[in-house]
Amino acid sequence: MCAGLLLGLLTSGCSAGASRDAESYQPSIGSNARTQQVDAFGFAIVVDGEGNGRVVGTLLNTEQQPHAVTSAIVKSDGTPVTTAVLVDVIRLPPHEPVHLADEPPVAVTADDLTVGSFVELTLDVTDGELVQMLVPVEARKGPYANVDVIAVSDGIAHRPQEIV
Questions:
Q1: CA dist 14 → 2, 21, 106 (Å)
Q2: What pTM does this model have?
Q3: For residue range 61-117, what is the model confidence (pLDDT) as tens digits?
Q4: Quick one: DSSP state of residue 128?
Q5: Which of 129, 131, 139, 98 shows the shortest CA–CA distance to 31?
Q6: Which of 37, 44, 99, 115 stands the most exposed, by the fewest C-beta atoms within 10 Å?
Q7: What is the spatial distance between Cα 121 and Cα 136, in angstroms, rounded to a whole number?
Q8: Helix H segments across the chain?
């Protein structure tokens, strides 16, 4: 009797999932990582095709005390280290999601970054915690069409129209 009940549950569970409309499937975009202090979701580097890029994703401080991202490093096969500039310290209040597309930007010199490739991103969080992950390089279109890409000039991040 238990076997029949279990088989019925498994069959109904599979058929419910199979009847879902294929068009409603939304693949996740970006990379995720978890550390003792911070969870990182949906990370990618969005590039504009003109050598400018921006790190996007959501950070969640999982501890009771505030933290902050103090630096960022991007490494790729083509170049040992790509410039990544924080415009300001990114504050991470306890248990509140911080969306990097809305916060002070992490600008990236993207001359050697190819759309479709993956690069290593390391975020340095206060108290010595490092958030490390492989993230995709994405074009500024589709879900990233409205991302405000930032240029880096002389180690300072600017909106592209600000560079003279």
A1: 18, 14, 43
A2: 0.75
A3: 999 999 999 888 898 776 656 667 777 889 999 999 999 988 778 888 888 888 999
A4: G
A5: 131
A6: 99
A7: 10
A8: 2-18
Name the β-bridge partners of 84: 108
Instruction: Retrieve residue 43's tokens.
Output: 């990370």
Cβ atoms within 10 Å of 117's Cβ, excluding its own: 15
What type of residue sits at position 147?
V
Strand partners, 90: 69
Decide if 36 contacts 60 (C-beta within 8 A).
Answer: no
Contact (CB, 8 A) for 39 and 130: no
Residue with tokens 């990370």: 43
Kindly list the structural domains of the chain, giving each domain's residue range(s) and its CATH number in brackets, ordered by start: 28-159 (2.60.40.1890)
The amino acid present at 59, given as its one-letter code, is: L
- The answer to whether residue 151 scores a pLDDT higher than 80 is no
Contact 75, 19 (CB under 8 A): no
- Strand residue runs (E) in the chain: 31-34, 38-47, 52-61, 67-75, 84-86, 90-92, 97-99, 106-109, 118-125, 129-139, 151-153, 156-158
User: Using CA of residue 11, residue 12, residue 13, residue 15, what is the dihedral sign?
Assistant: positive
Query: pLDDT tens digit string along 15-41?
Result: 444 433 444 334 468 999 999 999 999
